């Protein structure tokens, strides 16, 4: 499905990012996983680049390496993200700043750093990893939900800016997916999520990587500026 495509996935060492990297690689893409730490896996189609989404010099270096090696980029998945949850009354400014720096400014940094390579593709796809809380809000996540709403707005903006150059840009809004990020949630939060989820389960990374495969491939060639919810029907 992705033969001949060059893909970069940020935060590709763990969780949803790792699943997307391996799904793309198993579907024929050449994939670069950009992360802070080395991945605990190998695949013949996957290479690793140290990439901190908050470090614009680091991004510049990574972009020039990829330019030298491949001359273009077809798929960019802005997946790296963190949480620092607290209700507004207790949210520390440093936790606001950190989440905004990685989840929101990081997406701007990386996309700006790679846009000229994406424009060289002639058929490119940008995928921003948002969240249902970027659409619906969530108590205890002022910082995180603001960033996820922001990456949806950026995906739509880039759909308008780059559509005529055949760069598509979409967002995925996962609900609650089983990864390290949600592993730390208290039992009663999980129970209330499941009670509000018609499919009565949490999602798997694979559910998200399937949507990411669709948005990266030509199966979605007339889809841009959209948000796909992968959430089991949460909050319907
Ligand atoms: P995860 O398991 O915590 O993995 C996040 C990845 O991002 C890690 O590999 C992490 O690297 C990397 N990362 C963090 N800061 C980075 C930085 N400055 N530069 C580069 N990479 C960085 O999280 P996940 O659950 O897979 O989430 C992936 C994405 O999906 C995130 O954007 C998240 O907001 C979104 N999402 C997740 C859920 C869910 O239920 N899990 C729901 C909605 C949306 P380290 O290992 O070095 O920390």
TrEMBL record:
GO molecular function: oxidoreductase activity, acting on the CH-OH group of donors, NAD or NADP as acceptor; quinone binding
PROSITE patterns: ADH_SHORT (PS00061)
Pfam families: adh_short_C2
GO biological process: fatty acid biosynthetic process
Keyword Transmembrane annotated: no
Superkingdom in the source lineage: Bacteria
Protein keywords: Oxidoreductase
Tagged with keyword Phosphoprotein: no
InterPro entries referenced in this protein's UniProt entry, alphabetically: NAD(P)-bd_dom_sf, Sc_DH/Rdtase_CS, SDR_fam
PANTHER family registered for this protein in UniProt: 3-OXOACYL-[ACYL-CARRIER-PROTEIN] REDUCTASE, SHORT-CHAIN DEHYDROGENASES/REDUCTASES FAMILY MEMBER
Family to which the UniProt record says this protein belongs: Belongs to the short-chain dehydrogenases/reductases (SDR) family.
Protein name: Short-chain dehydrogenase/reductase SDR
UniProt organism field: Sebaldella termitidis (strain ATCC 33386 / NCTC 11300)
Phylogenetic placement of the source organism: Bacteria, Fusobacteriati, Fusobacteriota, Fusobacteriia, Fusobacteriales
């Amino acid at each position: 499905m992705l033969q001949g495509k060059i893909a970069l996935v940020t935060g590709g060492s763990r969780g949803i990012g790792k699943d997307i990297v391996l799904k793309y690689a198993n579907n024929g893409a050449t994939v670069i996983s950009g992360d802070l730490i080395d991945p605990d896996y190998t695949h013949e189609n996957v290479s690793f680049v140290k990439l901190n989404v908050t470090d614009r010099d680091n991004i510049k270096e990574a972009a020039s390496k990829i330019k030298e090696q491949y001359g273009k980029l077809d798929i960019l998945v802005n997946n790296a993200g963190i949480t620092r949850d607290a209700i507004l009354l207790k949210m520390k400014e440093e936790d606001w700043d950190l989440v905004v720096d990685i989840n929101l400014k990081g997406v701007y940094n990386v996309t700006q750093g790679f846009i000229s390579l994406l424009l060289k593709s002639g058929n490119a796809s940008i995928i921003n990893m948002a969240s249902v809380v970027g659409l619906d809000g969530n108590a205890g996540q002022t910082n995180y939900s603001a960033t996820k709403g922001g990456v949806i707005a950026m995906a739509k903006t880039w759909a308008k800016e780059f559509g005529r150059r055949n760069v598509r840009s979409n967002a995925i809004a996962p609900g609650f997916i089983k990864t390290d990020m949600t592993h730390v949630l208290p039992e009663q939060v999980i129970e209330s999520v499941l009670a509000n989820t018609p499919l009565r389960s949490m999602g798997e990374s694979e559910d998200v990587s399937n949507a990411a495969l669709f948005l990266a491939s030509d199966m979605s060639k007339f889809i841009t500026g959209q948000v796909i919810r992968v959430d089991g029907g949460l909050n319907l």
